Every structure is written in structure tokens, then in C-alpha cells.
Amino acid sequence: MLPSLSGPTQQYLADLQNINSEMTDVSQELSTGLRVNSVSDDPSAVEDILMNQSRITQLTQTQTNLNNLQPELQAGDSALSQAMQNVEGAISIASQATSPIATATSQTALATQVQGLLTNLVNLSATQVNGRYIFSGDLDQQPLYAVDSTQPTGVRQLATTGSTRSITDSNGVQVWLSKTASEIFDARNPDNTPASDNVFAAVNSLLTALQNNNTSAITASISNLQAADAHLNQELGYYGIGENRVTDTLTNISNSLVSVQTNQSNLRDTDMATAAVQLNELTVQQQAALSARSKITGDNLFNFLA
Questions:
Q1: 153-181 burial, b if ≥16 CB within 10 A, otherwise e?
Q2: How far apart are CA 92 and CA 221, in angstroms?
Q3: Residues 60-263, CATH architecture
Q4: Which of 41, 135, 291, 295 might form a disulfide with 36, Cβ 3.0–4.6 angstroms?
């Protein structure tokens, strides 16, 4: 049967237990680097810590999405720039073909060049980044067009699709909505006939005119080629705006992450220097308490501890 303890002994044991408990807490802070390891460590800070963690996760995921998007926008920008060069090349060829010195033989040679330009445009409409056809909308595992001389526009549409792939910032605001090759290269009127700025149709109309050595048709094709060039320029501007938005959004996200992570650190993380000093002070207190045990009178403390 344990002996009853006097008041001083009880106080001694309680003080020693408090010191040991504090040492355990501070040691855990130093080993984990966290001031708040459980709700009981600081109940008032838990809600803010959880909110910060959710915000950090949200910002980090958006940052990843936008970093993945950047190569697509850069590739789209490059593809559209090349497409414009091809259309402007077609305009130059049309001018050559309507010159007084043009001959049937030269028209045939120019037609071969235009055929190459049309093929290039179809290939550009099938631009890929990381295994995705960036102009294929929701069917991004396949191209949407192939060269086909039997078709009125010189190309055959392989599939019809829209684009619902929208990238938003961390607040849910849309940063980017991709466009399809149909919107960019194959603009249509409400009745589904090729629009005047239809890129494929404009180039193919020049090709057909050259093959038929039809000077008036060659001249007529120039206005549509110019309209197609202007249309591509607008689409290029759309991609340029997208690139700028992504860059600006990434900068904002980076700044927000620094702010939230700093706040999170202030709420949750251990001040390592302060904790180390505190542990040292507690160790000194513990040693002082243990060294004082021999001064306790009236109780056999060691029998009790045994």
C-alpha cells in the first residue's frame, strides 16, 4: 500500500510532471518543426490553418494547370504565325499568277506550291503538344482535318467537335478556353457554307484557279485570301492574349502563395530558436527539481516512486 504524500511532496511531483510535459511538447515541436501538431496545441489557430492549407492546395493545382497550358499556347501561337505566313505566301503567288508574263507552265508550277501551302495548313491544324492535338477541342487524341482534293475546300473534316476545356484561375475566373481547328481554319456561315475568311477554302480556291489557268478566278481568290489572313491574325491575337493572361495569373498565384504560406508558417510552424532556448530552460528546471528531491522530508519519495 502506498503511503500518503504530504502537501510539499504532492506539489513537487506536480511541478515535475508539468516540466516533463512541457519538455515533451517542446521536443515534439523541434522534431516536427510544427508548433501546432493537434487541435489541443492551439484551438484558436486550427480553423485558419485548415483554411490556409485548402487555399495553398487550390493555388498549387491552378499553378500546375497553367504551367501545363503554357506550352500549348506557345505552340498555338507559333502554328498560327506559320499559318499566316502560308496564306500570305498564297497571296504573293496569286499576284505572280496574274502578272502579264504568267504562262500556263508557270501556273502549273505555282499550283504545286499552293498545294504545298494547303498541306502545310492542314498539318498546322493538327499541331500536337504532349500527345494532344491542341486544335481538336474535346477530341484531342485525333486530328480534325486531312487533305482531300475531292472536297470543295480541298480538305476533309474527319470529326466534328466543340471545345469545353476551360482553364480557370484559383478564384474560378476563366483564363483560357481553347479553340478548334474548325473555328480557326474552317470558318462557316450559318448555312454551313464556307465563310469568306475560311482559310482552307481561300487557299483551295486559288489552287483550283491555278490548275484551271483561270486568271479571273485567281484574281477573285485574293480578296478571300486577304480575309483569311485577317481572320488568322485575329486568332493569333486571341492566343497572344491567352499567353499574357496565363503569365499574369501565374505571377499573381506566386505572390498569393508566398502570402498564404507565410501566414501559415506564422500560425503553425515552430520558432526553432525560441523552442531550443525553451527546451534548455526546461532542462535546467528539471535538473534543479531532481536535485532538490533529497531535501524533501516527511515522505519516503523513493518508496512511493518504486
A1: bbbeeeeeeebeeebebbeeeebbebbbb
A2: 12
A3: Up-down Bundle (1.20)
A4: 41
Task: For the chain, give the number of residues.
Answer: 306
What is the Cα–Cα distance from 7 to 238, expressed in whole angstroms? Answer: 82
- CA dist 37 and 277 (Å) reads 20
Over residues 72-96, the pLDDT tens digits come to 999 999 999 999 999 999 999 999 9
Examine the pLDDT at 36 and tell me if it is beyond 80: no
Alpha carbon distances (Å) from 227 to 145, 172, 222, 247, 271: 21, 36, 9, 30, 65
Percentage of the residues of the chain whose pLDDT score is greater than 90 = 65
CA distances from 216 to 91, 197, 221 (A): 14, 19, 9
**End-to-end CA, the chain:** 11
Could you state, in order of their start, the residue ranges of all structural domains in the chain? 60-263, 273-306
| Residue 184 backbone phi and psi in degrees, to 5 | -85, -45
pLDDT tens digits, one per residue of 47-67: 888 999 999 999 999 999 999
For residue 168, the cross-strand partners are 174
- Residue that has been written with the C-alpha cell 496569286 in this structure: 94
Above 90 in pLDDT, residue 24? no
Residue 265's pLDDT is 82
